[in-house]
Amino acid sequence: MTDTTDPRARPVPTGRANRAARMGGLTAGLLGSAAAEGARLLLRGQRPSPRDMFLTPSNAQRLTQQLSQMRGAAMKMGQLLSLEAGDLLTPELAAVLRPLQAQAHFMPPAQLKKVLSTAWGPDFTKRFKKFDVRPIAAASIGQVHRAQTRDGRDVAVKVQYPGIRDSIDSDIRNLTSLMRMSGLVPRGLEMGPLLEEARIQLHEEADYAKEAGHMQRFATLLADDPNCIVPEFYEDLSTQDILTMSFVPSDPIDTLQEQSQSVRNDMATRLIALMMREVFEFGLVQSDPNFANFRWQPESARLVLLDFGATRELTEDLIRKSRDMLQPALDNDFNGLTNALTALGLLSDKMPDTIQSEILSMVAIANKPMLSGAGFDFGDTSLVADLRDRGMELGRDRSIQHIPPTDVLYLQRKAAGLFLLATRLKARVNLRELFQRCA
Length: 439
What we know:
Elements: H1 16-43, H2 50-54, H3 57-70, H4 72-84, H5 91-97, H6 109-120, E1 128-131, E2 137-138, E3 142-149, E4 154-160, H7 164-182, H8 192-205, H9 208-221, E5 228-229, E6 242-246, E7 251-252, H10 261-282, E8 284-286, E9 294-297, E10 302-305, E11 311-313, H11 316-323, H12 326-331, H13 334-344, H14 353-366, E12 376-377, H15 382-395, H16 406-425, E13 428-429, H17 431-438
Parallel strand pairs: 5-10
Antiparallel strand pairs: 1-3, 2-3, 3-4, 4-6, 7-9, 8-11, 9-10, 12-13
Helix pairs in contact: 1-3, 1-7, 3-4, 4-5, 4-7, 7-8, 10-16, 10-17, 14-15
């Protein structure tokens, strides 16, 4: 094993008591800082809100830094909330949590060696010609290393952080308490269903055997697609805490920004078309839109698909309701779109009329790309900026107490992530043609 030192190498806190103590210390520090900020504002004759006191620059930095160091469910919940519930909590809190989408700290070599020895035995190094202890990727649940086996296989080894599965439930409880104490969660907002679904998803993502099964299913489903590559699963090198697969040489997806307009258009179209197949053909969706889960090969222009831990099976009912949106969108049938959104749970009679009207107005704006056969230019950010600004205004409205069904939120998250990626690539995509294929 090659040794390395890096300032981002931090041991993962293990044990529920240890992690709870870390979260308790974080909470105390954040609230103490908030109290000091409140006192400062009062002395200046201002009447601060809990949000103003809590969201100081130092508190924002402390929160993201500590969650990143803790990893596990604490960090993952921050990521999920910044995506799924950003408009339900506050735009400010979503902005604080958004940096957690970047890579986490990773285990130092000594802790990594202990994890690998527990999983493979103390003589595990005999399996490899080379094993780089500096990870090529690090996230909330685990980190990925490149290695070469004695029999010549180039592999990517995904190693789960120690104690992550056992701390998921307690991490979620502690982070939820922190958010409520901060005053950043609207009073009366029932987050129970969302948090329970997140808890279930986190346990599934920590189940590497289940992820291996999803990876193999996608490899089979996409066997007829020459444009996609799914890594090969290696069972002989995998355990409960380690998922080993073939290493597929590729570049980060955002390096496509340097490519020609036609290449960017083609790759963005493929990604959106793939999601349409996942929803309407496979009934199986890799729901995590993190850019790191998509890579590409410049020489073959093929997409490389990674990380199937957040894969979700869709019910026939959800697939049917999702399909029911397509034709009204193509026809610009506003009544049909309203009915479809209500059936999906994105609209509710419990919402104030003004809120429903604003959401429907935003839907009308978002549907404009469906009306042109010439395609939608994601490089024209005026539509995106308009929707973002109006969405932030909705996020500040405390009268919204509605949380859509969690399965719908996950689809919404994946679609929003692809929309953001296409925007970053400034791609032009014929969305109308893609919708017509599935309607």
